[in-house]
Amino acid sequence: MGIRMVYFKNRPQVLAVCAAIFLVGAGAGAWGYHRAEQRALLALTVDARRCAVAFSTNDLRRLSATRADLKGTSYETVKERLEELKKVQADVRFVYIFRYDPETKKVVFLADSEPAESKDISLPGDEFAEAAESPGLQAIIANGRPATEGPLRDSFGVWVTGYAVVGAAVAGGAHPMDILGLDISADGWRRNLWEQAFHTALYIWTVLGLPFGVLVMSRYWGMRGDTIRMLSKAVEQSRSALMITNLKGRIEYVNHGLCQQIGYEKEELTGRDWNEFRTKASSPEVLADMIATVRAGHTWTGEWFNRRKTGELYPVYGMVSPVHDRHGRLSCFITTLQDMSGPKKAEAELRAAKEKAESGERAKGEFLAAMGHELRTPLNGIVGFASLLQSTPLSPEQGEYVHTIHTSSEALLKITGDILDYSRLEAGRLPLETSPCALEGLIEDVLDLVAGQADAKGVVLLHRVEPDVPALVELDPGRLRQVLVNLLGNAIKFTAAGEVEVAVEMRPAADSPGADVVIEFMVRDTGSGISEADQARLFRPFSQVDGSRHRRHGGVGLGLAISRTLVQLMGGDISLESEPGKGTVFRFFVDAKVVDTASVSVPGLEGRRIALIAAHAGLEGELLSVIDRAGGIPVVCDLANLENAKAGTVIVDCDEALVARIASGAIGIGSWCGARAFGLVTSACGAEERKMLRPLFHTLMTKPLHHKFLLSAIREDASLQPPEKWQQKLGLNLLLVDDNAVNLRLLQSIVHMLGCDGTPVSGGEECLDAIARGGDYDAVLLDLHMPDVDGMEVARRLRAGELGEKMRKIWITIVTADSRATTSDEVLRQGCDDFIAKPVTVESCLAALQRIAPSQSKV
Questions:
Q1: Is the peptide bond before 760 cis (omega within 30 degrees of 0)?
Q2: At what angle do helices 791-799 and 764-772 cross, to 10 degrees?
Q3: pLDDT band for position 234 (cuts 50, 70, 90)
Q4: Tens of pLDDT along 184-218?
Q5: SS3 per residue for 223-247
Q6: Yes or no: domain 723-859 corresponds to CATH 3.90.1640.10
Q7: Are 134 and 153 in contact (CB under 8 A)?
Q8: Cα separations in angstroms, 4 against 224, 668, 822, 851
Q9: pLDDT digits (tens, 9 = 90+) for 558-615
């Protein structure tokens, strides 16, 4: 390979050799510096000796080294000679003679080369203060041989000094020694030394670096030639079409790939205008944009149509790049062309396949939506009439059959609803319907919906809303309720025992421009947990954690998939954390706008002591938080220590163990020590158990707790007169009618507190059905405004005798939030007997029940 032999395989090797050459040159320069310094010092020594020879010993002996010498001719002679010696060499700063006295060990000046008028002159007898710090001077004093020192800095500058003995003085003798000193400026001294060092290093760098540089450049140009040849072959043999045109658009070069693409030989293309091969099908705007872009010095990419030699038109995707010469002037253009016939055909086929698939998906979604609707209609009838059938007299065996029909049809209705919702989500036909929503009330309503399922398994339902959550936000409450029902239903389903908790927090909507806040929800359970492998497929449609043929839980695996999609529609996402045996935590967030900037308000308890008796730690913690937030003083205790709590109010969790103790007579009415007592029971607590518990408590409240209702009841109850005044055991059998579940629960609790039996029904239609079934009621407490059949219509039908002659004269008390006088007059004109304004209190309800005419009882 000659000069292009592979001595250096890569750049690090070249850099290493360059570094070695540099270090060798630097070392040679250091050596040259040292040699030059030795020569310069030797020359300085010689100069000092020559200067010393210029003085005779006799002349110096006449000098006494005192100020008296200034008047003698010997001093003048010595002084003139020193001045002449200074003028001989330009870089000499001082020439002077010292006298060293061996007896006193002092060094003093005899004379120096400074003019008499100089401020830097040293006079005879002046002691040389720096003698002890001058190594050259100390050396000549010690051995009598010429010496040098420096560079050293003194008050006059930086110097290199040479010393020589004047005459034949002997070192260590008893006679004084006269020493001549010659100071040379260190600046010129150093400059000369560095010049010598640089010349030495430069010589070595030239000797070694020049051949190496020639070798490297030879290899570089050889490799560059190889690269150019390889690139030429690659361009020529490439399947990509390549063309070079001059500034006028004439073709200067084409490769084999372009010849194959367009069907011409090289000779047929070279020299022709490349615009001849573009067709009129190419857009003029495309051509204009291409020319403007490349002439501005930028690369242009785009599509146009070319014509083959056969006349066939075909689409191409091209990239045109400008090429500049070494002076930056535009010299030519390089164009690469890709035949797009195949990709365009494949794109058309994919588009057709996509449209076909989308059509099939739409047909599937429409079919599922139609089938879901058709299935839901008869199932609603089955569920409704099964529920009605359960309320009729049945034998135990028939009751079991009807219960099975009811639960099975409800499960089927749930599955059908999930399928319908999923099909609507797939088809994109599930719009959000936003409206103001009170989050705490919504959560408590959802907990009421799943309370029966939880009570049947002994699972405790808890909830927590952070104080900074706004009282009213705008979002889709229906879809939010659906997500919470799905998550809570799953949590209860997979929790054999323990608790399920819902928590709500708020954070600013920094990344959500269409929202004011982000509401974060957490649904936590203490169930079986989910393995990491199962978590990956949990949100897939038609996928379940327990997918075996013998799974214990029903459903089709759509609930979580629907929930995630709904949450994403509301601007959020959903995630989970779980570990087998340690429960599961689902977290999701949604965007919301603030309607009421105030946080959720709670009735105040103003420092009242409230005793808590709860068997479940989670429920106890919830009660502690709620009471503490309301300003009360919660005191956790048990029955044995209730008297020590000294609380005017006691809240008792009536779990199965406590109810059993009450049933056995172990706990009597005196157990609460005179405190106002509130009993917490589950929806599974039957009528007989409630009847047994009622004498022990002022109010029975059904779990899960409604925080505001609990606090309002405690606050209201604490403001009343002593219990014996209003707890009169009226003994009335009442029909309670209201379409709002919370209001209905409140009304039922108050009448129970007053010793009455209250049968709750939701709405006017259910009221009419209950009366038609032959209920024996003393009075009806009837909400005025209801969506199906309002209170006035119910009253009209009763007074018209449509429900029987016996019910024509039943006592009717209207309950409404509209307390205007015109409303009360209208109520009485329609044949109603009494009127209660909301909010209903124990006092207002007691007064209304006391007004029921005795003659009306048991009509």
A1: no
A2: 30
A3: low
A4: 887 777 777 788 878 887 878 887 777 877 777 77
A5: HHHHHHHHHHHHHHHCCCEEEEECC
A6: no
A7: no
A8: 11, 112, 114, 121
A9: 668 788 888 988 889 999 898 888 889 999 999 999 887 666 666 778 888 899 999 8
345-425 belongs to which CATH class? mainly alpha
Give me the percent of the chain exceeding a pLDDT of 90: 9
The answer to which of 163-167, 405-409, 430-434 has the lowest mean pLDDT is 405-409
Query: Domain 13-193 carries which CATH code?
Result: 3.30.450.20
Choice among 37-41, 205-209, 718-722 with the minimum mean pLDDT: 718-722
The pLDDT of residue 296 is 78
Cα separation, 377 vs 107, whole angstroms: 128
The residues near 843 (Cβ < 8 Å, ≥ 6 apart) are 720, 726
CA nearest to 612, candidates 649, 656, 658: 649
Is-contact 71 80, C-beta < 8 A?
no
Q: Residue 125 and residue 115: Cα distance in Å, rounded? A: 17
Please, where in the chain does CATH 3.30.450.20 lie?
Answer: 13-193, 238-339
Q: Which CATH class is domain 434-599?
A: alpha beta
Where are the extended beta strands (E) located within 66-165? 92-101, 106-112, 147-154, 157-165
- CATH annotation of 238-339: 3.30.450.20
Cβ-contact 798, 812 below 8 angstroms: yes
Q: What pLDDT score does 585 carry?
A: 93
Tokens of 374: 């058709």
273 DSSP assignment? B
Residue 68 phi, psi (nearest 5): -65, -20
How far lies 728's CA from each of 138, 551, 714, 755, 845, in Å? 126, 55, 20, 7, 12
Q: What is the mean pLDDT of residues 18-24?
A: 84
- One-letter amino acid for residue 398 of the chain: Q
Four-residue CA torsion sign, 527, 533, 536, 537:
negative
Strand (E) or helix (H) holding 75:
helix 73-88
Sequence-ordered list of residues with C-beta below 8 angstroms from that of 610, at least 6 positions apart, any chain? 627, 632, 633, 634, 635, 647, 648, 649, 650, 651, 714
pLDDT level of residue 846 (50, 70, 90 thresholds): confident
Higher pLDDT, 249 or 770: 770
**10 Å Cβ neighbour count for 272?**
15
Residues in the chain: 859
Instruction: Could you please state the CATH topology (level 3) that the domain comprising 602-719 is classified under.
Output: Rossmann fold (3.40.50)
Of 651-665, 694-708, 709-723, least confident by mean pLDDT is 709-723
Residue 480's H or E segment, with its range, is helix 477-493
Q: Where in the chain is the domain with CATH 3.40.50.2300?
A: 602-719, 723-859
Whether the CB-CB separation of 276 and 321 falls below 8 Å is answered with no
Give residue 829's pLDDT: 78
Taking the C-alpha atoms of residue 433 and residue 421, their distance in angstroms, rounded to an integer, is 15
Spatial CB neighbours of 510, under 8 Å, sequence gap ≥ 6: none
- Amino acid identity, position 268: E
Rounded Cα–Cα distance for residues 376 and 760 (Å):
28
**Which residues does 343 contact at the CB level (< 8 Å), separation at least 6?**
none
* Span 157-180, average pLDDT: 79
**Best mean pLDDT range from 69-83, 259-273, 294-308, 392-406:** 69-83
Per mean pLDDT, which range of 14-18, 216-220, 523-527, 773-777 is the poorest? Answer: 216-220
Residues 209, 19: contact at Cβ < 8 Å?
no
pLDDT at 317: 82
Position 726 confidence tier, pLDDT thresholds 50, 70, 90: very low
CA 664 to chain centre: 58
Query: Which residue is it, tokens 């006391």?
Result: 850
Helix (H) or strand (E) run with residue 338 in it: strand 330-339
Neighbours of 754 (CB within 10 A): 22
Residue carrying structure tokens 């008390």 = 813
Work out the end-to-end distance of the chain between its first and last CA atoms, rounded to an integer number of angstroms.
Answer: 126
